[in-house]
Specification:
Blueprint (H helix, E strand, L loop, with lengths): L1 H40 L8 H4 L1 H5 L26 H6 L4 H21 L23 H36 L3 H21 L4 H8 L6 H5 L1 H6 L7 H30 L2 H6 L3 H7 L3 E9 L5 E9 L4 H16 L7 H26 L10 H17 L7 H20 L2 H22 L64 H8 L18 H8 L6 H5 L2 H22 L1
Antiparallel strand pairs: 1-2
Helix pairs in contact: 1-5, 1-6, 5-7, 5-8, 6-7, 6-8, 6-11, 7-11, 11-15, 15-17, 16-17, 16-18
């Protein structure tokens, strides 16, 4: 009777409850997303959403929750992303709004799993041996399968809503030229991308629903992400399908942002480098270095002359590169997929070389109305080689090979305009200044260099990339991209380390190799004991001694620390 009449009703009721909970979860997620987007549309100076507009303020602001000291001894395999503290969330660019969105979904799904616990038998539980009339765990496979299918539909409904919003925002960025509206829309697109990335990592109960796992307990959910990350995608087809859809939505959002950013950065650059307006030329003009050279005439007489050589890139180029770095750092470049940064740099470099090709086509020959003068060509040579240094593209792909060919063509055309004798004279000084400029600006423009192509700019030739002085990667592993900055050892030397020399002066040797003997301080007015001044003078080394000249800063701090501890110990003993 149960199997024929009650079981279908019972199963249908459970499935109805599951379906209702998942539909409610999807609606809650959409309402929460809409609320977050409305808060982004509010006052731009609102501090509560400031970190959503500029992740740099969120990433580089310390908070007590950055490191969770209570779980410091907890094994890494038993931690989720939320257990790792705020520092890990900042590294992954999961802002408070993203955390709130994922937490609301995961909490609803946790309650759903708790409700279904009464009707789902755990996988490790022993099967029932007795044949009762009513077996509440008999429908476990059907319930889990239905929960999996409904969970997939729930995620698809959320993604459909996000995709629809992305299309509307893409059209808004294209059709509405208002800068404030575009900035708000840009923040919405980026928040959508971060949300899609976080849903794969910050919703363990969503993973459990999609994977149809019966054991939903907390201990198992801790190990869920680490366990299934080690498996191949083919072993988890259900979750891999959802993960790929989330990633696809994320990449769609980043594509919209990338196209908008490229248009904003490159707007007006071709006009700036091709402009013949004197005011525009003076605005972008940079300092040139005065160099005195000595030449020898045919008669053997030597005479000196002065030449002016470019020292740094033009202001419009430096502004473009700095704006690009600022935009990348503002959205959390450490959490961006590597392909997004690479594609953006490819688009920017292609746009730059196209601008130079247009410049040469317009003013690169003597028959044109305003041909390029030799000083302008020297400055553009400096600019173009500076671009090659800061954004190296040395890949083996066909797109990079074509880019290198275009670069060689542009360089050849620029060099052909300069007098050959002058080019031989100017080239060494231009290359030296390029090395200095690349080294000085490598930290500022570090976000534009790939992590596997970093190094000292002055180590290799100017025509090469910045990767000349970098150590090879160990075991072929790809380096991390957490808060990436270029390494520049020339600008950041190592701190001096304190060293203990074997032979020193007698008094100073006792200070560094033996503990100081306890001395007594007297508080009486007769002054029998040593005074504080005499103790300091006896402890500190003489300024005229050779040991003081050879001792480091850390040795002196060690002596002062020993003196202070002895003084306060004597004071506490007296009291």
């Amino acid at each position: 009777m149960y199997k024929d009449f009650l079981k279908p009703l019972f199963l249908d009721r459970v499935q109805t409850l599951i379906q209702y909970q998942l539909e409610t979860t999807a609606e809650l997620m959409k309402r929460t997303i809409s609320k977050a987007m409305m808060e982004l549309t509010s006052d731009m100076n609102d501090s509560t959403m400031q970190c959503e507009r500029n992740l740099a303020s969120f990433v580089w602001t310390e908070s007590p929750a950055d490191i969770v000291m209570a779980d410091i001894w907890q094994a890494a395999s038993s931690k989720t992303l939320m257990d790792c503290g705020g520092l890990m969330l900042k590294a992954r660019a999961f802002t408070p709004a993203v955390q709130n969105l994922c937490h609301s979904v995961d909490e609803k799904l946790r309650l759903l799993l708790e409700d279904t616990e009464s009707y789902v038998q755990a996988a490790e539980s022993e099967p029932r041996q007795d044949s009762d009339v009513f077996d509440r765990f008999a429908d476990t496979p059907d319930i889990l399968k239905f929960m999996q299918q409904s969970g997939v539909k729930c995620v698809q409904e959320i993604l459909s809503y996000l995709t629809e919003q992305l299309h509307l925002w893409e059209k808004s960025l294209t059709d509405i030229p208002d800068p404030i509206t575009s900035a708000i829309t840009e923040n919405k697109v980026l928040l959508t991308a971060r949300t899609c990335a976080a849903m794969s990592e910050m919703t363990p109960h969503l993973q459990r629903c999609i994977l149809a796992l019966p054991d939903w307990n907390k201990h198992a959910s801790f190990k869920l992400t680490k366990k299934f990350r080690s498996q191949k995608p083919s072993e988890l087809p259900e979750w891999n399908s959802i993960h790929m859809k989330l990633q696809q939505c994320q990449m769609t959002a980043y594509r919209i942002w990338m196209e908008y950013t490229y248009k904003q950065i490159m707007s007006g650059f071709s006009e700036q480098i091709s402009s013949v307006d004197q005011n525009a030329i003076l605005t972008s003009l940079t300092r040139w270095e005065e160099v005195q050279i000595t030449e020898e005439a045919e008669e053997g007489k030597k005479f000196s002359s002065k030449i002016f050589v470019p020292v740094q890139a033009s202001w419009h180029l430096q502004t473009l590169l700095y704006r690009l770095c600022d935009d990348l750092n503002k959205i959390g470049i450490q959490a961006l997929p590597r392909s997004v940064v690479q594609n953006l740099l490819v688009k920017v470099t292609d746009g730059l070389i196209t601008a130079y090709e247009e410049l040469l086509a317009l003013r690169g020959h003597h028959k044109c109305t305003n041909p390029l003068s030799q000083p302008e060509v020297l400055q553009e040579l400096f600019n173009f080689r500076f671009i090659q240094l800061i954004i190296p593209r040395k890949g083996e792909e066909e797109i990079h090979k074509k880019y290198q060919q275009r670069c060689q063509t542009v360089l050849s055309q620029l060099e052909d305009i300069v007098d050959p004798f002058d080019l031989d004279v100017f080239s060494p000084y231009i290359q030296a200044n390029l090395s200095k400029q690349a080294q000085r600006s490598s930290v500022i423009f570090g976000a534009l260099c790939h992590l596997d192509k970093l190094g000292g700019a002055g180590a290799g030739s100017v025509g090469g990339s910045l990767s000349g002085g970098l150590r090879p990667l160990l075991s072929g592993q790809e380096p991390h991209n957490v808060l990436s900055l270029i390494s520049c050892p020339n600008r950041f030397p190592l701190l001096p380390l304190g060293s203990q020399h074997g032979s020193r002066g007698g008094g100073n040797s006792a200070l560094t190799t033996q503990p100081l003997k306890a001395q007594t301080m007297s508080r009486t007015a007769d002054g029998n004991g040593p005074s504080l001044t005499s103790m300091v003078e006896s402890t500190l080394p003489s300024s005229s001694s050779q040991a003081d000249l050879s001792s480091s800063f850390y040795d002196k701090m060690e002596k002062l620390g020993s003196m202070g501890s002895r003084i306060f110990s004597n004071i506490s003993g007296k009291s």
